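In response to reviewer comment 3 from the previous cycle, which asked for concrete evidence that the modeling workflow produces usable outputs, we include below a single protein chain processed end to end. The sequence was submitted unchanged, and the resulting structure tokens are shown without manual editing.
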Amino acid sequence: MKKPSGTRAIVKDIIIVAIGIAIIWVGLRVAFGTENPFYVVSSGSMVPNLNIFDVIIVQGNVPFEHLKVGDIIVFNRPSGHDRVIVHRVAEILNENPLVIRTKGDANPGSIPGTDFPITKQDYIGKVEYVIPQVGYVTRILTPPINYIIIAVIIGIMLVKQFGKNKAESKNLSDKPLGEENPDKQNPVDTAELDKIPDEKYKEIGVKNNNSKESESKNLSDKPLGEENPDKQNPVDTAELDKIPDGEYATSAGTKDSKKLEPKDG
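The workflow returned the following structure tokens.
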């Protein structure tokens, strides 16, 4: 199977990462019920509860009718919808339809056209979580720094991928031919076997039979006891007891034992 080139592998990785980010982003939007659940505080109107560069997570699934005094909400500025404001609910101006007034914690009072009148059409969501000072990252990622960072990341991925491919190619070139599986025997080509005449098969069979017969003959011609010539026959002590004391000298049962003549008197 042909492996993808380095450039194609990088493109594939980038596509996978992009799809993953898109899935996560869509999932967050569904979970929090708003197009953008993350906002960065850009002014000090809510100090000390919310500071500049704090990241707030907004829950858009909280109905506008359920808001009460004291809730911190995110909404579009009523006059023009040109800015996103995060302030605290200060007063319920009307119950049906609901109209509210907000105020920044650090501001002396509510600002007309900004803090009121806030209606359901202006409402984005209620602040659920605050992540302090993470918004500093947004300053780093502003153009052109964000493009430089992206280019560096892609460059690192390319260098890493090309280095990996180069190492694999070197390992393959240094490996001797046929070393991939030394235990694997060469496959038999049946087409080549069909070309061998029948007489050749018979000749091979005769040679094999002759070699087996010669091995059997060598084994049969071998003298008995030649397997271990240094091993002597065992001595039967019962037979030795039957021989009178005067009939042997030296070691009994050996080839060098000598029969002695009985002496007179």
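Confidence is low (pLDDT under 50) at residues 250-265. We consider this sufficient to address the reviewer's concern, and the full set will be provided in the supplementary archive.
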